[in-house]
Every structure is written in C-alpha cells, then in structure tokens.
Amino acid sequence: MTANPTVARPCPAARASGGTRMLAALLLAGASGLALADTVVLRNGDRLSGTIKHLSPDKLTLATQWGGEVSIDRAEVASFATDRPVRWSRQWGGEPNRATFGLAEAPGVVTIDEGDGPKQVPMSRVALLRPKPHETEDGVAYKGRVMLSTGWSEGNSDSERIWAEADFAARARDWRYDLGLKLRRESDGGQTTADHWLASGKRDRFVEETRFWYLRGSLERDRFKDLSLRSAVGAGYGWQLLDSERTQLSLRAGADAVSEDRIAAPDEAYPAAGWGVDFKHRLDFASAELFHDQQGYWNLEDTGKMTMRSRSGIRLPVREGLTASLQLNVDWEREPSPGRRSTDSTWLLGLGYQW
C-alpha cells in the first residue's frame, strides 16, 4: 500500500507571524517616508514637517502636504532640520556652501554638519537656506511673462481688439534689469480705432541692499493721441522699500530727456523730472498677486505739462505657469493735443504664461 504524500501547511501562528512581519515592514516603510522631510520647530513648541523651500533674514517658507506653502516669520522659528544636505550661506550675497541641519534643544540654535561632524551654531549665523540665484555671489535669476487679451464681434457691426504684453527681467546680487513690450490694436467696421505700442527698459545698480542708481528708456507710438514717436532716456536714484517673498515695493526719482514727434501738433523736446513706482503683493488666497506699476514725466520747461502711464490689477495662477489676469491700464496727459482726451483707460481680462 502506498502512503499518501504529506502536504506541509503553515500553522495559524506562522501565518500570523508572517502577516505581522509584512505589516511591520509597511509601517517601517511609511515611517521612513515620513522621516524623509524637513522639520521646523516653532518657539511655541509646535513641530511642522514638510520641505523648507527658502530661509531668508525675515521669513521661512515651508511646503507642506496639508496647507501648501506656509510663510513663517523667522523670529518665530526655534530650530529646524533638513533631511539631506542643502545649500546655505552665512550672509546675503555670499558664496553658498552645503550642509545638513539638525534640531537643537536650545531655541535659536541649529546643528550643522558640513562633512566634518555635527556642531551647534546660533541660527543668526545662517542667513540663507536654499538661496535664490540673485542672493548668492554670482548667481542670476531670470523670469518672464506674456499676456494676451483679445475680442471680436461679427454681424451688424464688425469689431476686433488685440492687447498683448511681454515682460522679461533678470536679477543678480548687485544689479537687475527689466524689459517690457505692449501692443494695442482695435478696429470697428473695418476702421482702425486704436493703434498703440510701447517698448521700455530699465537697469538698476545697487549701491546698498535697499538703494540703487538706475537708467531707463522708452519708445512709444500712439497715432490716436497725435503721437508719432515719443522717446525718453533718463537716470536717477531709487529706493527698495520692501523686498520680501510676499511683497516688493520700489520708488525711483530722477531726470529724463524727452522728445515727442507729433503728427499734427508741433514737435517738442524738453527736460523732465521723472518718477516710477513698482509694487507687487502676493495674497494668501490662491497665491494671487496684486500689482501696480507707474511711470511719469513732468515737463520742466512747461510745468503745466505732465505725462503718466500705469498698470494695476490682479494675477491668478491657473496651473503650470498659466495665469489669468484682470488689470486696468491708464495713460494720462495733463495737456493733450487739441481734439484729444487727456485720459485713456482700458480694462483687460486676459490669459498669460509666466516662467
């Protein structure tokens, strides 16, 4: 008689043991994933996890899964830790190094390891963490933006409108420049009703962190304001009143040489007092950005004449660089050419892309 083969069956305890090991492995993997995150300890004892995107002399920006990017006043940070070596700098505009940071028990202290062993240092010695290009000794940060607003109608009346803008900027530790281009064209019933373009640029040279000299220039044409070409070149002094990750505000004042070639009225060339305002502020709501920029000239030979142009509005990020914007553009002349109005204002709702 042939014996039946015996099949080995795991006992319940063995199955439970295997399941426990698998669960433990999963929990360990999850814990390891959670451990791979930066940590910020606040002075009130709260502990936050995420990725430290940037540490500046006044703010710490932490990217979290629960609340997006959170901006924290540096004065509220007791200590912080990173899960890997990161770039940092002892001073604004200095040469960056790499180190891993760890928590320290004493508030206002961090542990730093640059490869020669950990040591504790005051947080005040860490000016920047993951510095931006323009915050380092020789880095340059570039950004650009384009926006298009258009509309048309067909039927009893045919009309179309095109408004386009493009801006490009570069920022280094000691200098920055901005280039801009605006184009507006409108027609109604086959007749052109608006024909305007403006090209401008400015360059700033910082003499201190919050003060700078500037050069600027612009070329402008607006046929319906009797302006064949207006050219302006100027220089002056500026103040960077605010320059945080959330808010930027600068003012400038100087002298400009302005030349105006008119279509019907006499041409003019005159010295002018010039001014400028640049303001941006990022809201907590949907990372929307408020903005206002203004440029102006005051004729020093005929003080009754003044020219100003401004752009104000709000930009809302949509996704992956795409933006939606609502803005008001205003061009104003105190003494326009005969038969022209002093103010041109345009509301624009457009889509754009920024990088």
Automatic annotation (TrEMBL):
InterPro entries assigned: DUF481
Signal peptide: 1-37
Keyword annotations of the record: Signal
Pfam families: DUF481
Protein name: DUF481 domain-containing protein
Provenance organism: Zeimonas arvi
Source organism phylogeny: Bacteria, Pseudomonadati, Pseudomonadota, Betaproteobacteria, Burkholderiales
